[in-house]
# Entry
Amino acid sequence: MSDITGCGPLNDKVDCAANVYMAGCHLLPHDDVIGTRCISYVIYLSDPDDEWTAADGGALELYPSESPGVPALVPTAFALPTYNSLALFPVAPGISFHSVQLQSFLTAQWASAIDTATRAADSADQLGHGKVPAYTAGYSTDDSNHWTPQGPLFLQRYLRYTGAAPAASEVLKLQSSLTDAKDVNTTKAGATPPTPSSPGRLLAHVQTALVQSPAFVKWLSLATGVSPTGSRSEVRRLRPGLDYTLAHQAATSSPPIILDAVLCFCDDVGQEGDDEAPWSASGFECYMRAVADGVGDVAAAAFNGEDSTDEDDDAAPVQIGAQNNTLSLVVRDTSTMKFVKFVSCRERGSRWDVNVEYTLPNP
# Structure
């Protein structure tokens, strides 16, 4: 190991601990510096009969350093927890940053049910793949399918699901289903999920049973260090070739500090021959600090990938790309604006998400 890692001479002291990462578990970035530790190693003992793929999450992530003691925001190397494999790396203070990726936020069965439903809806509405969409694609004028267009057009355009909240008995069944990582078609309390022909219904269940649940709020508190005191949420569909939201400041009546939690679903699988990666130039969510003059300059910088002209690094825009079955968390105040970039008709389908704003105590 000394020769492989180039860490220099090692003694015979070895520490060992066993850890189990269940669905929804993760480990935040850290450098593993403890005492005289020189090398960290991981032996993976995952199920040998269940091949692990990148879509399952749970990978070891390695980060480069942007400056001494500060890791980059995005990891550049990954190692899947493949059975009977070994990962090891030298430990260096402020340099050897690594984390364990959050496993797919919903179980594979629920994520698959949502994927099936959303792709079928996009196909039925003839959306994506470069098609010019009909203005009314995805909703009916009598609101019979419970998808309602949101405006005004000079600020935003997308569809919001307005179907009735599921009954308490359905919520209990869903919560059981979400914790059953092997088989949602069990005869226990976790019964078969709602019909895949209704993406709005599926996402409304997730909205009610997951992001509005006390257990999820407790997890948020542990993961972020802040304690939400209330929330409002919506299920959104942003259609390719049609939908967007524009950057604008929050109303003066808005809470001073907000925790945004967005659970996103989209078809992000690239195809051979694509000119660019899916969702690389559209459908992303962007955060920027509002300034008295030059909002347009900051917005342009966010779209063009340029550095902010503001001397304060905190003014640089933060861009979160659309990615399937992922959760993004952002704490912002009323001086921060956000928008979702217009979804190009070249995307393979809609951006679907559960968008939540949690209110936080005043500082």
Notes: The chain has two domains: 1-100, 108-176+196-304+314-359.
